[in-house]
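Structure first, sequence second, as always.
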């Protein structure tokens, strides 16, 4: 059972009340249908009010929701004939990053994405979605393979960040991420990245040097977590809510600043409420991007990506 988010508590209590009345009506001869309909109408208005006026910290909580759809969930809904590929041909396989080949509307594509778990056992298996260097090297291997066979690359970003452990550092975590940034910048095939949950630090950027970057409405994308930023700025991680607001890390903020190309609307309450419908919205965005980027030559693809990142952070005096 998923954890209730703090801002959702009034909604949860009202749903519980409706369920109680429905159960009482089913088990007795008392007709409470009018009262139930009134509460359902009130619930709809409450959901529209709360979910329609979410603050930055509310979106952070939704981005971290335990039941939020993952890369493999979207692969199952959006792509046909997915063949998962493993290993970096150097050290081993990292299950915090999944990748392979599939078809999207009959177009061969390469898919790469962070993969976290939805329960403790799977999170341990996936290292909580925090890749080791071999994960990024696997991703790069698949990208270079896609370039060789002229396949578009679709990346799903969903990680707190690269794993900061001793073993990861010994195997070259920083070098692996930096290598991805360099190589992705020069890929001659279209690269589309979609932030579907948390996009944290270099661990996210290692799959984010793309021609088009899209974000789900309640996802986040930043150089550091709000807790980490609060610890550095104010020496107090409890001020993470204020840090999140100051950092402007949500899709509406990043769209406004021109860092992302499109904000993909989410189902009312978040993608976890209806993953299938959310996948349809993502599919529509991927289709538009492929149509637009498919008109460009290999040289234009590289220049398009270069121009996109050159525009980020431009200032005037």
């Amino acid at each position: 059972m998923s954890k209730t988010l703090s801002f959702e508590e009034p909604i949860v209590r009202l749903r519980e009340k409706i369920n109680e009345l429905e159960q009482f009506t089913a088990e007795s001869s008392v007709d409470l249908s009018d009262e139930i309909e009134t509460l359902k109408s009130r619930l709809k208005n409450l959901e529209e009010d709360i979910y329609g006026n979410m603050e930055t910290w509310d979106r952070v909580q939704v981005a971290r929701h335990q039941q939020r759809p993952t890369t493999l969930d979207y692969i199952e809904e959006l792509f046909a004939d997915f063949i998962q590929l493993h290993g970096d041909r150097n050290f081993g396989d990292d299950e915090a990053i999944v990748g392979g080949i599939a078809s999207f509307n009959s177009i061969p594509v390469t898919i790469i994405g962070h993969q976290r778990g939805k329960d403790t056992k799977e999170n341990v298996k996936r290292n909580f979605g925090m890749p080791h260097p071999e994960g990024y090297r696997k991703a790069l291997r698949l990208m270079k393979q896609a370039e060789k066979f002229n396949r578009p690359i679709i990346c799903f970003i969903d990680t707190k960040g690269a794993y900061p452990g001793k073993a990861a550092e010994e195997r070259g975590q920083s070098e692996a991420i930096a290598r991805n940034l360099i190589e992705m910048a020069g890929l001659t095939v279209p690269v589309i990245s979609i932030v579907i949950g948390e996009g944290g630090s270099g661990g996210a950027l290692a799959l984010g040097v793309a021609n088009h970057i899209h974000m789900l409405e309640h996802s986040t994308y930043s150089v550091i977590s709000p807790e980490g930023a609060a610890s550095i700025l104010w020496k107090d991680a409890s001020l993470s809510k204020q840090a999140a607001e100051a950092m402007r890390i949500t899709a509406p903020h990043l769209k406004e600043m021109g860092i992302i190309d499109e904000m993909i609307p989410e189902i009312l309450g978040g993608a976890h409420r209806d993953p299938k419908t959310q996948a349809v919205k993502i599919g529509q965005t991927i289709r538009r991007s492929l149509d637009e980027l498919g008109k460009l030559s290999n040289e234009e693809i590289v220049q398009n990506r270069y121009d996109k990142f050159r525009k980020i952070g431009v200032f005037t005096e």
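Margin note: The CA atoms of residues 79 and 145 lie 19 Å apart.
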